[in-house]
Write the structure tokens for this entry.
Amino acid sequence: MSTLPFGQDRALPDTAIEADVDASSAAIDRTAYEGQWSLIWRKFSRHKLGVAGGVVVILLYIIAAAPDFFSPTGPEVYNPRYTYAPPQPIHFLLDTEEGVVFRPHVKAYNSVLDYDSGRRVFETSEDEIHAVGMFVSGEPYRLFGLIPTDIHLFGTLEKDAPFYLVGADRLGRDILTRTIHGARISMTIGLIGVGLSLFFGILIGGISGYFGGVTDNVIQRLIEFIQSVPSIPLWIGLAAAIPLDTPPLQVYFMITIILSIIGWTGLARVVRGRFLSMRGDDFVKAARLDGASTLRILFRHMLPSFMSHIIAVVTLAIPSMILAETALSYIGIGLRQPIVSWGVLLQEAQNVRTIAGAPWLMLPGAAVIIAVLSLNFLGDGLRDAADPYQN
Amino acid sequence: MLRFVLRRIVYIIPTLIAVSLISFFVIALPPGDFVDRMAIEAAKKGDYMTGAEIEALRSAYGLDQPLLTQYWRWITDIVTRGDFGYSFSWQMPVSNLIWQRLGLTTILSLASLVFIWIVAIPIGINSAVRRYSLQDYVFTTLGFFGVAVPNFLLALVLMYVAYAHFGQAVGGLFSPQYIEAPWSIDRVLDLLGHLWIPMVVLGTAGTASVIRTIRANLIDELPKPYVMAARSKGMGEARLLIKYPVRQALNPFVSGMNDIFVDLVSGSTIVSIVLGLQTTGPLLLDALKTQDMHMAASFILMLSVLGVIGTLVSDLLLAWLDPRIRYAQG
């Protein structure tokens, strides 16, 4: 694990000898002989919330990679007979002539239109049921956009039976399916936005910290300026500049770019601080005397030695991007239909009356909270583990 | 100290120029202008505008001038006469609308800041002193949620709870009879009665992060020798805590205060839109959607100015609290 040129100043042999001498107490100083990444891993794995957050984040990205498989039906499948259908709980046991058997099912709905309120009223039918199973065939789709299939992780055994585990929206679309599909956009917009911010942050922060002096001063004033401007009004202004007839994919990328226009400043500060403190280190001097170019010193020699910090900062930056996308889309100037993101889905919960009639419209909000919480936990764990040489 | 203050104020001037440029040109980005939009709206009603009419309107609003000329006219009017230009959609000068809205945004942001202080400082101190106690875990957990819940969602949930369980619609900053009323004691009381919901919604995320900062800072300070020295001299625990380590722990918090204030001004935009407050947010959104240029640009400009002033005040406060800073930079 120790092939990368980091931390040379720390793992010198004489510290190893000292560590052995000190090892009279039970704990041996692992920093003396283990590589940086394995030390980081060791420290991170002790941070239980961080590990739990990491597991949830990985699960979320797996779901985001194949939302069609994990959802019971398609995101655009609608059924006007089931507008605002309330959640159908799953029952596991069924009374039959042969006694009680294990057969997961949901009870079917009989719906009638109430002409006074203009809404559908739903009654659970006691005799009609839809059996539920795993790996059922349903709405056809392409897995990863490539492999044509119709297998869904769970759903009704009969094809196209109405199945609303957490309820339906105003067009009778399944909220759970749409929330799962929303993960794809909402989870990646944070990732891509942070990727862009990271690129600018490292480049500009690196230049600032490496050159110092006037360059540093100018860049620092610029960052201070951007940070003193309230971001949301500026975001709203920029997002409103996207013409309404822009294709969805372009809107997605424009919103990402808009979010990272402000996002890079925090990363640039961290990078700059690290570069400043490392500029005088021996290995940087050595590289310079070897005639390495500035960019090579920045990216090949200095960057790897604080990569772990960067990863932690990046993880902590993703949630704010997710929150910003959700907020912008919610007020109607971020992503729009037909894109399915958590913010777009929350647009359905626009006023109190609608929410009071169908509280399950808030489910995408719960998804946002879970995603942000787990990313925060993961980021906290990574930050604590980023410098394994400190106690 | 005076030199330091002057220097900070001089620094602000280029910042303000940059802010005004950005505000104006961001608004000018979208294709088409207010007159185009008016023509489209008119066409929808079957009332076609001729090319001559469009041109006449455009020159009446000054939209036919080059962008830089428009900017120059807009900014000189603001600086010399306090005139923010003309709102096309409201058919009145922007300055008639902006001050009250901006005032309410400021009040809301400051109230949330005070709320954050009052709630977060005692909890943060308590959590640091009784580390790993039940209270600490409860507040740490709440803090994590406070950061993770988008504030518009919190506003929605509060509105839903108030509507579903108390049968009343919350929202707005005034009861209907006070919206247009002139300022009076009753109106202020009415405002205070409505202010707490947006204040709590807006302050939650900030409270959570401040609790974490103070807790972490104080935990760093508590084991230091000066604390032990004071304790060994027989100083009372409460007094000791407030007088030394807490003061130290609050320093990084003051320097982080500008970020919090800027976040509050920024976050109030979304919360105001959701809760329908009479602050800058909803008007800004409308102005952007109708391409009401002067109004939108002026709002973004003034919100940024609010952020810049907040940053300045917290910088000065920090310099006043911590002599090292004013000597280093003075």
